[in-house]
Amino acid sequence: MKSSSWQLDPAAEEQASLWAARLDGSVLSAGDRVALDAWLAEDPLHRRMLSAYCQLSADLEQQLPLMEGIREKPEEAQPPAKAAQSRPWSRWPAWAGVMLTAAAAVVLGVRLSHSGTELRSIATPAAQRQELALADGSHVQLNARTDLVVELGRSERRVRLASGEAFFDVRRDPDRPFIVETPAGLVRVTGTHFDVRADSAEELEVTVAEGAVLVRPAAAPAPVSLSSGQQVSAGPDGAVVHRLTAAEVEDALAWRQGQIVFSGTPLREALARFARYHGRGITAAPAAADLRVGGRYSLDDLDGFFAALEQVLPVRVVRDLGGNIQVVPRTGS
Amino acid sequence: MPEPEDNARRFDGLYRATLVPLRRYLARLLGNSSEAQDVAHDAYLRVYPKVNDRSARVPEAVLFTTARRLAINRLRRREIAPVVPAAGGLEFAASPEPGVAQQVMARQELEQLEEAIAQLPAGCRQVLLLRKIELLSHQEIADRLGLALSTVEKQHARALRLLRAALTADPGNTAPHRTPNPEKEARL
To answer: Which of A52, A70, A110 minimises the CB distance to B129?
Structure first.
């Protein structure tokens, strides 16, 4: 029993859950707000309990629609299935050959064939990665919360990366260039291994693991040619090319194994990567934003990352009632 | 069984026709484009199965309604935080407990969550799903089910309690019988 002691107070537990429910789905009157404040003032524990329930509530909104088994039969009780066969995703339509991994994290898979064009829209939910094989023999790995449309035509292969991050292993075909379009620019290759990150509409980061690519940042005057081991970061102010060691390339691609590597990274940026992956509000207070973070972390283990931060840096992690998380300077002690 | 190709075409058509206007609409509602992008993403994920099984007669309308409701929930959550007086500074929110939330988010725990939901009492589950999946407000749920508003609120609260209890239980101990429940079963 590692659980907190507040479970010993069922009345408070009930109040906390009721306030969380009402904050979520009802309209509170001014009188209700006063009552809520009074209840919160009674005991510091109340605020923590309410915060935990509000988070749970927000997470349920995110998770439940993605659970196929639950959506199907809301009226009936589900038999407690064996863990091995109760994957909520398993009933997703099987587009033969599309899915390489078992946990069908790809939620929109679309395949069309007319006039020789194959077209697919793929999106991944929070905290899930996905790999898929294209008909031309290329492979794409998608990071969490990534939107991608693939169009394989006769004269070119085109991928629209609306947002998120993907790693491409492109089958060489000089007659059909492979083009990745992002809001902040284009990447053009014939065959190679490279990573494209377009977390925001203004920024683009391309890392080449093998071969050569041509990047055309929307804001840059001229295209940038990159070869193996190079990385370009492009934003509204232009583009900067870095040369990476083999180890640094590996680090940049660590997300494919569900990991992330920081090296002297500003806390603000490190948190933004986790925020992006989990689809949550995770920010640093201004006074903590420029602290530097290093190390290798599991993307899925948000609590582990926060625990490490609190251990290494003079910060603490606080969660508000809206499910947002902020890292603030630790005062005193 | 609808044709997968056909569904694919329907969904792709919807996606192409709506992506730009939907994001613009959401950006106006939310006041920033990155959140608009997030909500649009979530809305497509939710609408996809409905296009697939053809339960939505006007998918575009369902998409925009879903997106609007998701945006409203976000706006509400933005509002919730300031409700809390910042008396103790940010200290108030310090959570020594590794939130149930994060545990749930971990992929492996989805199965546990699914099972916990399956074990909710029927009324509780129905209210929870109408709120979280259909995105109906408590008042709308009360109207639809012919229940008092306070009953809906209590059912929702009870679902949260039962799920939290089930999800914080010792994993070795989530036998298919009774989930340990700290509260006395309050009957409605």
So the answer is: A70
Decide if pLDDT at B89 tops 60.
no
CA B28 – CA B37 distance, rounded (Å): 12
Q: Where are the alpha helices (DSSP H) in A138-266?
A: 246-252
Tell me, yes or no, whether B17 and B73 share the same domain. Answer: yes
- Which residues on adjacent β-strands are paired with residue A187? A180, A215
Q: Which domain range does residue B138 map to?
A: 97-173
Give the total number of structural domains in chain B. Answer: 2
Cβ-Cβ contacts under 8 Å, A307 against chain B = 98
Same-domain status, B10 and B78: yes
Cβ–Cβ below 8 Å for A58 and B77: yes
- For residue range B6-45, list pLDDT tens digits in order: 666 777 778 878 888 898 899 888 888 778 888 888 888 7
Tell me, yes or no, whether B105 and B64 share the same domain.
no
Residues B70 and B102 in one domain: no
Q: CA–CA separation, B171 vs B166, rounded Å? A: 9
Task: Give the mean model confidence (pLDDT) for residues A141-151.
Answer: 87
Count, residues in chain B: 188
Is the predicted pLDDT of residue A299 greater than 80, yes or no?
Answer: yes
Residue type, A291: L
pTM (two decimals): 0.58
What single-letter DSSP state applies at residue A332? -
pLDDT at B87: 37
pLDDT at A233 over 90: yes
Question: Is residue B16, in this structure, part of any structural domain at all?
Answer: yes
pLDDT of residue A252: 93
CA distance A167 to A139: 8
Decide if B137 and A26 are in contact by the 8 Å CB cutoff. yes
CB distance A52–B99 less than 8 Å?
yes
Using CB atoms, pick whichever of A36, A107, A307 lies closest to residue B45. Answer: A107
- Give the mean pLDDT of A270-297: 90
Which neighbouring-strand residues pair with A139? A133, A169
For A111, the closest chain B residue by CA position comes to B8
CATH architecture of the domain covering A90-251? Sandwich (2.60)
Of B53, B83, B113, the domain-final residue: B83
Q: Which of A4, A36, A74 sits opposite B83 (nearest CB)?
A: A36
Distance from CA of B76 to the nearest CA of A (A): 8
Q: Are residues B78 and B8 in the same domain?
A: yes
More confident residue, B81 or A153: A153
Domain-embedded: residue B61: yes
Lowest mean pLDDT among A105-119, A161-175, A307-321, B161-175: A105-119
Q: Do A86 and B137 touch (CB under 8 A)?
A: no
* CATH class of the domain comprising A258-329: alpha beta
Min Cα distance B57 → chain A (Å) is: 18
Shortest CB distance from A1 goes to which of B9, B115, B170?
B170
Phi-psi region of A111 (alpha: psi -120 to 50; beta: other; left: phi over 0): beta
Q: What is the ipTM of this complex?
A: 0.72
Q: Which residue would you say has higher pLDDT here, A18 or A109?
A: A18
A151 against A93, higher pLDDT: A151
- Evaluate whether residue B91 is within a structural domain: no
The residue among A322, A317, A311 whose CA lies nearest residue A288 is: A317
In angstroms, the first-to-last Cα distance of chain B is 40
Question: Domain holding B142: CATH number?
Answer: 1.10.10.10
Contacts of A10 in chain B (CB under 8 A): 182-184
B86 Cα to chain A: minimum distance (Å) = 11
Which of B83, B105, B127 is the endpoint of a domain? B83
Task: Break chain A into its structural domains and give their ranges.
Answer: 5-66, 90-251, 258-329
Q: Do B161 and A13 count as a contact with CB atoms less than 8 A apart?
A: yes
